[in-house]
Amino acid sequence: MDPTRWTVWLALAAYAISIAAFVASPRYPRLQSIASVLWPCGCALMWAHVILAMCLFYGGSHALAAAETSHRTREVLGWSPGGELYFNYAFLAVWTSDVGWRWLAPRQYASRSRRLSVAIHGFLFFIAFNATIIFEHGMIRAIGMVSCFVLVSLLWQRQGVVNRL
């Protein structure tokens, strides 16, 4: 497997495990430290994925990456709204901002509004869901479906914990 694939799958695994650990941490406090390590590691792996993809597949060309992303969307969905690559960039920016906020202002981060947490994690989940279930197939899709089911189940079970994310 090429490094662009394993970096993205490791990043998404760190994402899923982090979210599960954050959600379960009120019941199992030791999970908080695991999540606190995996959250920025997953983000760093996602940066590695983007950099590797831009260098190895697109020759550093945003235009080529955008055209390929739109083409792939058209293949999978039958249409392309255009600008899909910007959703990937937004995913990376939101995750990076969340990691930075957690590191630089932990008190403010911990007291942020539940709505903001839901918006941030809802967006990240939406992109991760699409990446693993809509745009993948085979074993990756199966793992993505199980992961998404587990995360939604944990959140459903622990209503009110979303503001801890």
Description:
With 165 residues, the protein is mostly helical. The chain has one domain (3-164). The protein is 79% helix and 0% strand. The chain contains seven helices and no strands. α1 runs antiparallel to α2, α1 runs parallel beside α7 (138-157) and α6 (114-134) runs antiparallel to α7. The longest helix has 26 residues, at 31-56.
What's a quick, concise take on this entry?
By secondary structure, the protein is an all-alpha fold. The protein has helices at residues 3-24, 31-56, 62-77, 84-104, 106-110, 114-134, 138-157.
User: What does the radius of gyration come to?
Assistant: 16 Å
Number of domains: 1
Helix run count? 7
Biggest sheet layout: none
Shape: globular
Computed structural class: mainly alpha
User: How many strands?
Assistant: 0
Low-confidence stretches: none
Strand content: under 5%
* Helicity, as a percent range: over 70%
Cα end-to-end separation: 32 Å
Average of the residue pLDDT scores: 90
- Run of helices and strands: HHHHHHH
Topology:
Elements: H1 3-24, H2 31-56, H3 62-77, H4 84-104, H5 106-110, H6 114-134, H7 138-157
Helix pairs in contact: 1-2, 1-7, 2-4, 4-6, 6-7
Observed structural traits:
single chain, 165 residues, mainly alpha, 7 helices, 79% helix, 0% strand
